[in-house]
Amino acid sequence: VQLQASGGGLVQSGGSLRLSCAASRSISGINAMAWYRQAPGKQRELVAVITRGGTTTYADSVKGRFTISRDNANNMVYLQMNSLKTEDTGGYFCAANWIGSRYEYWGQGTQVTVSS
Asked: Per DSSP, what are the bridge partners of residue 80?
């Protein structure tokens, strides 16, 4: 499956953005979809996961501010980001289908820049 992330941009601290990840085929059977991010000079980190059943998991740093959701009918996954902080700046990547030690499919990143 091919993944296309979009929705990034420049926003002031405290603002909001919604990222979208469009899949090239049905995601209803995919066990998990995730968002990762990578800040300059840092390792890629897991931001949020949503399973096929709708269970969500978040990094501690984004709990209460970010919401991941999936629209199986339209093959989309979203990341609603509220109360953005400068430390949320980075490239955001969507990923699909957990295969035990990694995600099988990755999209290209969309850049999020939060200014103070």
From this structure: 18, 67
